[in-house]
Amino acid sequence: MKSRFAALLVALAAVLLSSCAGWLGPREVELSMAQLQDALDRKFPFSSRFLELINVQVTNPRLTLQPDTNRLVTTMDALIAPPFTDKSWNGSFTLSGRLAIDPAQRAVVLVEPRMENFALSGIDSAYATQINRIGALLAEQLLKNMPLYTFSPDEFRYAGTSFIPSQITTKQNGLVVTFVPAR
Length: 183
Prior knowledge:
Layout: H1 2-18, H2 20-24, E1 27-32, H3 33-41, E2 46-50, E3 54-66, E4 71-81, E5 89-102, E6 107-120, H4 125-143, E7 146-150, E8 157-158, E9 161-171, E10 174-181
Antiparallel strand pairs: 1-10, 2-3, 3-4, 4-5, 5-6, 6-7, 8-9, 9-10
């Protein structure tokens, strides 16, 4: 009789523990603007040669968030130097990307990159169109699926339950990522 009662208690405990995930409900992780800026700063400076013709160096990213469009906007300083001329151009450009969650990378990533503004001082009009095309390629290379913040494995577990990220909310001063219990 005691062994049946013990077996029943063990079975009941197992059922209760397996349903704990439903009891916990969603939880939120806040990422401050400082954390996001720090993560972005670690990815710069960035240097590349585009189309084997133009050297591009990008530095000093400055981050802002657009809560109404769920996009991250960053303005960066740029130095562009074509090897076939002694000239180089300084300026800045602004890129944006939509914020999304990539569970495989355990990260907040930027998708749908877009060039918002590209301004270089002293550029000849003959080169302006080509440089703007390079700007669009630069936006794609710099931002597409770029992990902005990578979660630690511990952030996917809480109170012995596995969680998965389900939603990202953009605020003026940071992001809120909502996690729900894994089922």
